[in-house]
Model the fold of this input.
Amino acid sequence: MFRIVEAEFTAPEIKRFVIEAPRIARKRRAGQFVIVRLDDKGERIPLTIAGSDPESGTITLIVQGIGKTTKAMNMKEAGDALQDIVGPLGRPSDIKHYGVTVSIGGGVGTAIAYPTAAALKEAGNYVITINGARSREFVILEEEMAAVSDEAYITTDDGSYGFHGLVTDKLQELLDQGRRIDFVLAVGPVPMMKAVADITRPYGIKTMVSLNPIMIDGTGMCGACRVIVGGQVKFACVDGPEFDAHEVDFENLMCRNKAYADEEREALARFLKERRPQPHDSALVVK
Done:
């Protein structure tokens, strides 16, 4: 069992957990993830490690409540425990001195972009971060991203905070200004990552994306997380999760991610109908 030390909502449907996992905390590197199971009958879900503290033996996970399991996890509080956490899994981010780097996080993808931005800064890069959200209330990790950035930008779709527009609009603005950019990491919804790749491709900028396909075991055995990269089949759990954005077949990824959409909706509806009302039900809104 893995005890939850801290649990707090940082935005609607988005909750930050600090969890006791000393061996993972000692070994994890930027870009890696864990597989979490809430109880002995629960499904296995992949969650990127947003941070760790080897001294206290804890890892930080940021969870957006979308489906049955993530909403159930967001009902957990400090003092509760998770059945299983397996990790660290996946290949770490390729951290080296590139020069000028841009780390882009769309929505909860910021939690994945943040540790890599911190590692890029530590490696001596000039770090620009672009943190995007639907509106001001959905912005996460603003102070943390700013602390590891030479330039930090917030974008909101509705213009309620920061730059009015998408993260891709801000990236294009920087390029239109003639800014030198040597490396881009983009993490977020698949259409956003595809759009970033389309923008950087003509400039020949090395661009990486962290993929989020359906995943079960996280060790390359089940094959559920297969993606097409450079015309070849790869497994996101062991070959990734980060890949060259200019070689990813995003259309295939989007189709595969919709494979169980009906079943996921049914499972969520059944869960919300059968569970007992909770004090924080305002955070469990079906979308």
Remarks:
- The chain has nine helices and 16 strands.
